[in-house]
Amino acid sequence: MTLEVIVLALASALRPAGVAALYALLSASHPRRVLIAYIVAGFAFSVAIGVLVVVAFGGADIRFGGTVEHLIELLAGTAAIGFAAGLAAGRAELPSRGNATAAESAMALRLRNPSVRTAAVAGVATHLPGLFYLVALNEIVAHRNGIADGIVAVLVFNAIWFGAAIASVILFMVRPGAARRALLRLSAWARLHSRGVTIAVFAAAGAYLLVDGAVGLFG
Predict the structure, then answer these.
(1) Which of 22, 23, 29, 109 is the most buried (most CB within 10 A)?
(2) Which structural domain, as residue segments, surrounds residue 88?
(3) CB under 8 Å to 40, separation ≥6 — which residues?
(4) pTM of the prediction?
(5) What's the pLDDT tens digit per position in 42-53?
(6) In a 3-state reduction of DSSP, which class is residue 11?
């Protein structure tokens, strides 16, 4: 597993939407059940996609690296920085800033009093594979030493991605009140600074990918 995979997992873990979903679930009348459903469903879905990619490439004995790998990093880094620049310039907007889809609005409404099924759906919806996960899978496939090694890398990526949710469940079991207060503060902060956080995360991850890709191609 490469450093890029860990960096991209940390970038994925900073999604403001995930923090907001966690707070909503902690505020439910039965938070333990819905939090567990959120984690299990989302983790299983995300890991299944990663494992499917690793097994598919491993079973076909497809390997690529070098120029192709670094070109993908350059393209992904450019896309990430472009999105960050668009947000900073006001040319792009986050879904939470007034242009959410009907499905996202319905999900937000249901999370006010979630069922186990709704929490499970939210776990999947807030962890759909995005740019960072797809690039991480590219890195895993390019550097794996067998299918087992690739699967371990996928599990590590998702353990980091779901780290906040897992920590919330553990904290809730030990100190429920403290867990709610901590997530309330974090959720309020995320709502106020979601734009800035997203810009910073995409710009930092994009710069890392650009530098790493350029060094690999021209270094």
Answers:
(1) 22
(2) 3-218
(3) 120, 123
(4) 0.76
(5) 999 999 999 998
(6) helix
